[in-house]
Amino acid sequence: MNAPLAKLTKFLRLEADRGYDNRAVLGGLERMVELWREEALAAGVTSATVEAVAARLHDYSSLSPHSRQEALEGVWRLLEEADPDVGPPASPAASPSPNADRPAVHHEAPSAAPGAPSEAHGEMTTDDDLEAQGDDGGLEMAIAQPEATTGKAPALSAPLTTVPGIGPKSASTLAKLGLRTLEDLLWYLPRRYEDYSQLKTIHRLWYGEVVTVIGTVESIEMRPIRGGRMKLVECIVSDGTGSLRVTWFNQPWLVNQLRPGTAVALSGMVDQYLGRLTMSSPEWEPLERQQLHTNRIVPIYGLTAGVTARWLRRVVDSVVGRLAGRVPDPLPDTMRAELDLPPLGDALQQVHFPDSWERLRSAQARLAFDEMLLLQLAVMQQKHEWTALTTEPLAVDDDWVAAFNAHLPYALTAAQTQAMADVRHDLGSGRPMNRLLQGDVGSGKTVIAAAAMGMTASSGAQAALLAPTSILADQHLASLRSLLSEGGGLLPEGSIRLLIGATPAAEKEEIRRGLLSGDIRIVVGTHALLEEPVAFARLRLAVIDEQHRFGVEQRAALRGKGANPHLLVMTATPIPRSLALTVFGDLDLTLLDEMPAGRIPIETRLLRPAERSRAYRFITAQLEAGRQAFVIYPLVEGSEKVEAKAAVDEHHRLQDEVFPSYRVGLLHGRLRPDDKDEAMAQFRRGELHVLVSTSVVEVGVDVPNATVMLIEGANRFGLAQLHQFRGRVGRGLHASYCLLVPDTDDERENERLQAMESTNDGFRLAEMDLEQRGPGDFLGTRQAGFAELRLARLTDVHLIEKARREAARLLELDPKLTRPEHAALARALQEFASARKGEIS
User: Among 197, 335, 604, 663, which has the minimal tally of Cβ within 10 Å of its Cβ?
Assistant: First the structure.
């Protein structure tokens, strides 16, 4: 039997078994016909049969039980004529219920997972049945389950195959969009909206406007065009005030669906052809149906191959209509009332199928607030848990601090002095420090980290500094030995060591023994510090440089080598205020917003690709004056897929053709660690005049004699990253320059880069970068969970502060959210936290 006919017969038999109560399928038989009609036509059922079935069921909900029975018997006769295999007609198990025309009371059914026997059908539900059965065999059974102890409607976790019309094949296709459960579909929010709510008569239409027209099909025909390669459906629609020519390409089935006399709603842009107004490929719906695609604000969802916009919109509507109101609302009623926020169920309904722009904005504001509130609660609870821990206080002698300051070759800025006081207080507090030290390139973060490690070591404890690269680790080693005067009174000789992957095996073993005995007070290293054989006698401070380069597990692994050690994380990437209140909200923040005296501002220039030779001449002049230069490329090697210059290819060209009288070195992430270290060492010693590099030079390179930073393909980097590159020069006594050369002359992209010319303020650039590129690019993949916020924006400071105030108020009243009125919120927070496993920052 034809599959759509088999599906319909199941619906009819179930409806008869239920006594014609119009509950056999979700939304009633009238709603079912909307989904069934196109499927039947596509499967070869004649349009005459399809339309006759639709006509019989058109007013089914308003009929009496007896009339419903007659209507279904008439439908059955139509099906028998269409296919003799349909079999005997459905007959009621009992006479129609006298109350069948009243709203049915749906008693809660026992749990029925897909594949289990269905009480409604009295048969085993299979994957094939799920494609064809009515809602009682799937979605309705799941919805009807009583709420479990989790408080979450069990229907939400049901697979999409419980939705009528979604079988294994469709479910597999939807999985490509990340849609596997009813909850996924419920929260699959539209990417944008088309406003088809403006209804106009045909004689008032204007070219270029987006409108909805309601009229009657006067004529429709299909003809081949372009040598038969395409089919054009041309329809004339009239509304009494005028006629409109409407066309669709390669949709021949419309001829059977839009027969003359059909009342139809059309939505789209008014076009013009040969002086007459037309519509090309508009959305359309028969006028008697619920309007999902026309005459309203229509949601536009992300699609994939095999999923059409109309089909997905209908499926989402069926799920949202029945499930949105069943989702537990996490906000206490008092909070929702005070903040004038709509109920969650209403917000979900309106965000998918808004009645107006005003209600849509209200729904979006509600859902965004929920996300931000959960984020704020998560970071605040995490901070509370951290501050509740205890650790060994480290007493720091005033004489040691005075000796450290006296040993410095320069005076600390006021910001550095305050930062050192914060760190000293944390070390002696008896509670583990959890502090983020942020400051622009060259603001003096290393001095504060050195002071923290020196204070820890002077107390007889140990400190470890984790760096992302061996280049940076080696530079930190040199800085610490100089700042802490190893062997000169502040720390004993040999108490600061370096442990990286390239460290010889015998030396690694010696360092491990020294750490285990406590003889080594400070160790600087890369991921080699995290290896299992590395153990400490008394680790009390973990310092992490460029913290965004490390994941949660790596930071936890280092901290796990001590007993609640203090944590100091450093970043040269300026953190916008919005991120400081969210992603890093569990950390105490110390800001170094002053630059040391004597730093000369770096002059930045944006050049067109055609002006590259000017940049080369300028670099040559700097080389002749005894200076050095960086040249940065976005790729290591050339790629057919990406039209961008690459370091390896350009290195040869620059050496042979552009700077033949100078030595040009190469540095990139694919080199062996020894080769990278050697290239960097040669550049520091002045043996290389130009260093060609990829973004590996972003951190860890301190060459005072380098005065030019040329960045090729500058449009491929974010503003914050460009600012980091720029900070690699200007670290000496000479005027320094940053030259930006984009791949193209694209005005919009170059307008973004012009911000680099106008400001050296890293925080301003970071704000712009976050706004333009989003948190995923700004924070990196290790913080990508924050890019998954559906509606809340990490740039919306007003929303963040509003949610932060409410979160603080909630936790002050109920720190563990144990009150009955906070039960749903506590569950939502638990789910939110588990979805973002580990520490927030």
Answer: 663
